[in-house]
Amino acid sequence: MAYGEKRGYDKRARKWRYRGRYKLPNGKWGSVSKDDQGQPFYTERAAEQYAHGLEVDVRRKQFINPRDGRITVAEWAAAWLPSIDVGPLTEKEYRLRLKNQILPEWGGVAIGDLSPTAIATWEKGLRQRLAKNYADGVMSVFRTMLDDAVTEKLRGDNPVATRKSGRRGRYKPKPKDEKVIATPRQALLIARNALEMRGLNEYVLVLTSAYTGLRIGELAGVHRDQLALKDTGEGARLHSVQQSQYIDGVFTEIANKYDSGRGLILPRFLAELLQELMDSRPGSEWVFTAPKGGRLLRGGDWYKDTWQPLVSGRAPRGVVRGAKARVGIRPVLGVEGLTPHGLRHSQKVWLDEGNHPRVAVEARMGHVLQGVEGTYSHVTLAMELAIAEYLQRLWEDSLRVVVDRREFGPYPPLQMPRQKRSPSRLPSLIGS
């Protein structure tokens, strides 16, 4: 049975301190000298009552040992990271968010001492200096890590828990969906820019992304032998079973996101374009390559030097200061800020507009329907062929001549290449 006992005299408070003793789940005696707010017990009665509450938790199998909560956030993070089962790039992002944001602020704090109010204050400052998506990612990692700490009974609740029970603070309307999507016509115009700028490879890459919904990493990982372009009555297909990523500077092929490997029936025009692309370089291992035929890189340089000009345009330039001449690319109006992933979103919108069965649309996107609908709904060949035929009609409609409509904007202003400046030399003042 729990009891309190005298421990020592607190000279600053001029009071005796007490601790509570209680039976642990293993039958041994445990002790506690502070309450949940970190305040010491100055009466035997207070220590005994607190210890009695811990014994009640033991009997109810809800006991959390206060000593376990003394582990710091940094110590828990070091033990937690090896346990997570996520993709290599996701794990890298987790580690960076911990290293750059969470641990500098909370690394030395004990798990049991984390305060919801203090974390809310820190989060407010975080969101003032960081982009929304990045701040959301940081808080998501912190919340997930502390969810697992609760599971391990390092503390009883999560101080970064989501606020689904009610609104708190100033009212903020739910942000509108600002994802930029393209029409089939706009996707064609972007592809034509790609043809002008980079040739057939980029032209087919843009159209394949728009009409299959595959991510750029998944397109970069498609091998030549994963194309079945001859239609034997079940449609020409592209089989996407892996994606390419550079992990720690090493080219790596890993499973598709969410293990969403799938075979996609292609509209006729796209199968013909892919065949033309394959015929143009018979020795290539990959379907889509870098400009010189190597592996397609999808890092920051590709987005900046290739993708952005396809959407936003670039000014024409002659040979100047040793830089090569380049053709001008006009921006496509109406899709300002479109990302490559926006083409994936665009296909989803096109298929929804075509009223295709939801199970077939989600399967093409690599998603799995949840609940009863996912259990009883199934994709048939007829559904897949109908989608391919519908996408073929969208393509043919996008090729129609457009009269009296501005589709391209003016060329962006020309930016001259930077030159390295040599250090300026000051005239000598000696003898002047």
TrEMBL record:
SUPFAM superfamilies noted in UniProt: DNA breaking-rejoining enzymes (SSF56349)
Superkingdom of source: Bacteria
UniProt entry keywords in alphabetical sequence: DNA integration, DNA recombination, DNA-binding
Presence of the UniProt keyword DNA-binding in the record: yes
InterPro entries: CB, DNA_brk_join_enz, Integrase-like_cat_sf, Integrase_catalytic, Integrase_recombinase_N, Phage_Integrase
Domain Core-binding (CB), residue spans: 71-150
Residue intervals of the Tyr recombinase domain: 177-389
Ranges for region Disordered: 156-177, 412-432
Sequence ranges of Basic residues compositional bias: 164-173
Matches recorded under PROSITE patterns: CB (PS51900), TYR_RECOMBINASE (PS51898)
Keyword match Transit peptide: no
UniProt family annotation: Belongs to the 'phage' integrase family.
Name listed for the protein in its UniProt record: Phage integrase family protein
Organism field: Streptomyces cyanogenus
